[in-house]
Amino acid sequence: MRCHTLEYHDIVAGDDFEASGFGGAAAASYKLGRGSFTAHLGAIAAAGARIARVDDLPAGAAPVLLTFDDGGSGALSAAAPALEPYRWPGHFFVTTGRIGSAGFLDAAGIRALDAAGHVIGSHSESHPIRFAALTRAEMLREWTASRAALEAVLGRAVTVASVPGGYFSPAVAETAAEAGIRLLFTSEPVSRVSEIAGCRVFGRYTLRRASTAAEAAALAAGRPAARARQWVGWNSKKVVKRLGGRAYLALRERIFERGA
């Protein structure tokens, strides 16, 4: 099967991109103001996208899933209110080690999103930037601890997650499955849904602050040219990331800081 999944991060009500989620220029490049995000939603609606929950996928043409990483406070103050007029569900992935800290959701906020009909999932406990570089034991601990924290907040099983940092390998899905996760989102820009060790794996198309509403609509509609641009860009960066390791991350942060 196929799903066109869009990957957002923080949505902020004003223009203070440090108000929600992780700080720094690189993180801010993934954050949208509510006005821009609202324009994205309008374009996606105009494209006729069928927005769905990952745990209730409709048959037929590829549905569109809207996901939000990190667990920033903007999920409740900006993203969910923008979705509400459309009655669209979002998938909010929480870095559980940050619950209740400045700029992040607290337990009450997580429960409020859940009560409003959104999907709550794990984004690991500590958000390792190079998740695939962890040992299997470290990966398993990240998934297990994060699931336990969210289940304590919600009082029920949590079986959905997304991979932090965009670094993926089969071991990431294998350890997620071992920890009880059944639906896992990566940042690989693909629509095809695969399965690893009993865990269904979904790719995603990333939207940044610089992304236009037209680009969001094209990705939601599954237009080949838009998908191909993301695939080429992602795979070009993948080689650099693999070779550069932590040096790549440090250089990336310096570049964004100079451009801020």
Structure description:
With 260 residues, the chain is α/β, with parallel strands linked by helices. The chain has one domain: Glycoside hydrolase/deacetylase (TIM Barrel). It has nine helices and eleven strands. The strands form three sheets. It has a five-stranded parallel beta sheet. A four-stranded mixed beta sheet has the order 7-8-10-9. β4, α3 and β5 form a beta-alpha-beta unit. α2 crosses α7. The longest helix has 21 residues. The protein is globular and about 45 Å long. The relative contact order is 0.16. The C terminus is likely disordered.
Q: What's the tally of helices?
A: 9
CATH class: Alpha Beta
What is the global morphology? globular
Kindly report how far apart the N and C termini lie.
40 Å
Strand order of the largest sheet: 6-5-4-1-11
CATH superfamily annotation: Glycoside hydrolase/deacetylase
Structural class: alpha/beta
How many strands appear in the DSSP assignment? 11
- List unreliable stretches of 5+ residues: 251-260
Task: Give the overall average pLDDT.
Answer: 92
State the helicity in percent bands. Answer: 40-55%
Architecture, CATH level 2? Alpha-Beta Barrel
**CATH fold topology:** TIM Barrel
Radius of gyration: 17 Å
Helix/strand order, N-terminal first: EEHEHEHEHEHEHEEEEHHH
Strand content: 5-15%
| Count of distinct structural domains | 1
Main β sheet profile: 5 strands, parallel
